[in-house]
Design a protein that fits this description.
The longest helix has 49 residues. By secondary structure, this protein is mainly alpha-helical. It has a domain of 146 residues. It is a multi-pass membrane protein.
């Protein structure tokens, strides 16, 4: 019994560590701390979008050309190394280990469990604000997606996710001060509008209701 509990705690700790590692990797890529991976994702997505949207290539065609390029490159490199009498490079770094497969499975399972918890959380009274926010977000997403095709929508998402966070981090103080200034400005504008329009409307409605009440009293007399 004790050993079983210890194993569960160990697995839970390992899963938490895996989540932290995966989160840190994604964060580093988004914030351009891993410049090679970030640039590769941006260049590959841009090239794919240009070829498929501008030049109207099909996905299978691009996939076939990419596979031909990789096969030809590996064939030429292997033959060049053999002619020069060198050993081919080790491909152990490209192999998926059992640990990597388990980490991927744990990540998928954790995301699925979190989605199920979110669905149950939305059914409670406390989850109403989250439910309304989620519905509004999904509706906005569907409206934006209706104005463009899926590939363009996906490409725009990649561009935004690889540019907006790093811009925000670099200009965080300026953006925060601008947001505070906008909040103060909007609050002042609302106060002016409330004073000049809403209060006058309220006063007029109250006066009209009082005059109507007085007229009714006079008629009753």
């Amino acid at each position: 019994m004790v050993s079983t509990l210890a194993e569960r705690r160990t697995r839970g700790g390992g899963r938490a560590n895996d989540r932290v590692v995966n989160y840190n990797i994604a964060k580093d890529i988004v914030l351009w701390r891993r410049r090679t991976q970030s640039a590769t994702i941006l260049i590959a997505s841009t090239a794919t979008w240009v070829l498929m949207q501008v030049y109207q290539f099909k996905f299978i065609t691009l996939f076939s050309w990419l596979a031909i390029f990789l096969l030809a490159s590996s064939f030429l490199c292997a033959n060049m190394l053999r002619l020069l009498g060198k050993e081919p490079p080790s491909l152990s770094g490209f192999e998926m280990t059992e640990e990597s497969a388990m980490q991927m499975a744990h990540t998928i399972k954790a995301c699925s469990e979190e989605g199920i918890r979110l669905m149950f959380r939305l059914t409670t009274e406390e989850g109403w604000p989250l439910f309304l926010g989620l519905v509004a977000g999904l509706w906005s997403l569907s409206y934006i997606a209706s104005k463009m095709d899926f590939l363009t929508f996906l490409y725009m998402g990649i561009i935004v996710s690889t540019t907006v966070p790093v811009i925000y981090v670099k200009n965080e103080n300026r953006i925060k001060s601008l947001v505070e200034w906008l909040k103060a400005k909007s609050k002042r504008s609302y106060e002016i509008f409330d004073e000049r329009a809403i209060q006058k409307i309220k006063t007029r409605v109250i006066n009209e209701s009082e005059m109507k009440k007085q007229n009714d009293e006079k008629k009753a007399e």
